[in-house]
Known about the structure:
The chain is of the alpha+beta class. It has helices at residues 26-35, 55-60, 68-77; strands at 3-5, 10-12, 15-22, 43-44, 47-51, 64-65. The protein is built from 3 helices and 6 strands; from the N terminus they run E-E-E-H-E-E-H-E-H. Strands 1, 2, 3, 4, 5 and 6 form a 6-stranded mixed sheet that branches. Strand 4 and strand 5 (47-51) form a beta hairpin.
Amino acid sequence: MAIYIDPPTWPGHGRMWSHLVSDTSFEELHSFAAAIGAPRRAFERDHYDLPEERYTDAVRAGAVEIGSKELVRLLTAAGLRRPKHRPGPAATGREGVPDEPTGGASHRRGGG
């Protein structure tokens, strides 16, 4: 029952990005993201794309810092991983969020 964040090492739109995930549920993730002011449009399939300048805010709020590979392992073990090629429970796989995020970069790096 935790929220995790990887380092801001993913480039996109002239910025560096982190991924914010839950090891419990999307509800927990959405609640945490809302509490730190992350817009819902930053949610992409199974994570939030968080810009580098918001990384410290997330950690101060309780997000656990881990590496990107460990983040994917935790997400997969929790049964919450939604690879781009396989939609989630909703038809879009994104719980009603538009297909193209406004800030994230992971949709361009081939694995999200």
